[in-house]
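haha ok so turns out i had the wrong file open the whole time. this is the CORRECT one, sorry everyone. sequence first:
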Amino acid sequence: MKPSFTGAVIMAPMTKGSNLPYRRLCDELGATITMGEMALARKLQKQSRPEFALLRRAPSEKVFGVQLAGRQAEEMAWAAALAVERGADLVDINCGCPIDDMVRRGIGSALLQKPRRIAEMVTAMKKAVGEVPVTVKIRLGFTDDDLNYLEVARAAEDAGADALTVHGRTRTARYRRDASWTAIGEVVQAVKIPVIGNGDVLFPHEAEEKKAIAGCAGVMIARGALIKPWIFREITEGRYLDLTAEERLAIYERYVALGREHFGADERGTTRLRGFLVWHFGFWCRYVPRHADGSYPRMQEREELFAARSELEALLARNDEAAHAYLADCLLEGRRPDSPPPVPSDLIVERSEVPEG
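then structure:
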């Protein structure tokens, strides 16, 4: 299906987070476009089986996009044609990944320093995929001292890009500071193609407020989708959903069902799914509902403690490995989580970030 960017609510391409079962879950919960995990064009050319798996589309996905990373126009054009052949409705160029290893290879956000190369990629990929949209995801700049997002955006548009996604931070900022939706709005004013805003959307009113600030066509959700996959339903329906712990657990049970379909129900598939479940609980546990005074938690201010309304909600809020492992096993075994492990004294643990362009 040809994507519409106007009013789009897009699940971001996220390493590990955009696994196929989780994309299916977010699609069911209202995402209008789901993006696969970043795939490396060079590894695809080398016939890497794990990389080819990132191009796999679920038949139920309404609109599926493939994000590619590379540094040569020819290899990106070849990979784009392959992605379309395998069912992609759009192909995106990753110009935002801040991870050091990617930057050292000259891909991801390293490309922000080379607007001409981005333009060459767009031109080559457009020629390779015909009418299928080619989009570009960028940040505001490589460093805080080199905010060249308008130059990059215009270069992509002039080369024929069909849309832009702008993550409102620089590469060096990573995810530490609030995203600038004012800067995203500057891109909207500078180009004629649709612009998708990305950064710090966790509740439906934030999506509307930030869209109003930027005047952008749609929003892309990354960490918010990992913390609360029902955010897509909230945004599409325009209302906050105060899900109970039981309702949240039902969503996680649905992910398990989708995971079994994808990974298999044998021992090997269950082991793989368990690894993903434990990882997902590292984000699901971050969810905090609206405060009693009507205010909302902020993405950049993690609230480790809150007044849980039930024992299950308190369990789902735990961020220790023992709790996550216990919950994963309960879901996989189809049993009620009613005998959780003791709360460890060092409950607060460091949580990993998601490589996301």
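Residues 245-333 form one domain.
again sry for the mixup
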